[in-house]
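Lab meeting, item 3. Inverse folding demo.
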């Protein structure tokens, strides 16, 4: 099973596009995820093509046609923007019905506090209509978002502690815990993950926006990995993307945040301590699959299908779920 038909990765001074299956393809570039000009032809290839970046200062999308005129779109999943960590998009993943998630609709990231005027201006090309801040009130007050013109900006906490209060993260205290306390904290946090998919006002508001086609949407929290990771997982699951691919996207955070993870381990991990300590530190700067698995296992425990879950929790009755998929999954024929 392929997670996407084409993958785009950075190459020296440009990009490399790789097909999951060998074929006869023609590649075009565009600044739009939805259309392209035949004059902007990059070249032909059978499985891999490497080329100079045709628009180094812009968000570029690549349109691929095969011999039967099937149309696919690909772009870099990870977006490098100064002052904004863990920024990536959800386009390209294959749903069970064979359609792919449209590019240019769903973006996820860490907090936006570090953006300067130049970066805010760059974001305009994404044409965001919605920005959903999943942080607590305290987090947002301490590190406020810049104003992004043209987008409705909403803050709704997506994570609550077991006592019902908004979860406010202060990772500094976690470094002083004993190994036993680390295990207790990990079990507690896994329990919080199990609650996130249920009765969650932030995710309900998010799905309302998606149904109203108020996209593109950017959703984020502080590190763009836990609250944001569950939001991304729910979107992909609602569109019919298999769980294994959803988990794959979740774990990409560890690649995006690899420098921070390694720095944390080098600073706080001491030789001779159990590997669990290293895994625990990884989850502070990155993610551990066991947390998302806990959330998804809880859904599967309570419901016979994801379709039942989305109907019960988000009022996504079959006709609404079908509309959501028709809106955000790409048709291949031109």
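The presenter then showed the designed sequence:
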């Amino acid at each position: 099973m392929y997670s996407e038909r084409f993958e785009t990765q950075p190459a020296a001074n440009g990009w490399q596009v790789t097909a999951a299956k060998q074929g006869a393809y023609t590649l075009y570039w565009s600044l739009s995820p939805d259309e392209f000009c035949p004059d902007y032809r990059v070249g032909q290839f059978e499985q891999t093509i490497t080329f100079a970046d045709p628009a180094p200062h812009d968000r570029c999308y690549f349109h691929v046609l095969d011999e039967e005129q099937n149309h696919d779109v690909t772009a870099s999943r990870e977006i490098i923007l100064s002052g904004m960590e863990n920024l990536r998009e959800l386009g390209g993943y294959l749903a069970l019905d064979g359609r792919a998630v449209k590019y240019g609709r769903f973006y996820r990231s860490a907090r936006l506090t570090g953006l300067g005027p130049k970066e805010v201006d760059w974001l305009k090309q994404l044409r965001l209509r919605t920005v959903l801040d999943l942080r607590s009130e305290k987090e947002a007050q301490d590190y406020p978002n810049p104003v992004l013109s043209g987008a409705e900006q909403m803050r709704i906490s997506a994570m609550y502690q077991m006592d019902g209060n908004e979860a406010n993260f202060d990772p500094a205290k976690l470094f002083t815990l004993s190994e036993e306390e680390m295990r207790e904290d990990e079990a507690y946090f896994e329990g919080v993950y199990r609650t996130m998919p249920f009765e969650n006002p932030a995710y309900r508001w998010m799905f309302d926006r998606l149904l109203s086609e108020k996209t593109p949407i950017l959703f984020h929290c502080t590190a763009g990995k836990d609250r944001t990771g569950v939001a991304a997982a729910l979107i992909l699951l609602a569109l019919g993307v298999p769980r294994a691919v959803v988990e794959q996207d979740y774990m990409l955070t560890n690649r995006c945040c690899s420098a921070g993870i390694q720095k944390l381990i080098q600073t706080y991990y001491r030789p001779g301590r159990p590997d669990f300590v290293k895994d625990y530190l990884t989850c502070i700067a990155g993610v551990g699959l066991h947390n998302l698995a806990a959330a998804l296992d809880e859904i599967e425990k309570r419901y016979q299908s994801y379709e039942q879950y989305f109907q019960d929790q988000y009022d996504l009755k079959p006709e609404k779920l079908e509309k959501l998929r028709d809106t955000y999954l790409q048709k291949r024929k031109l």
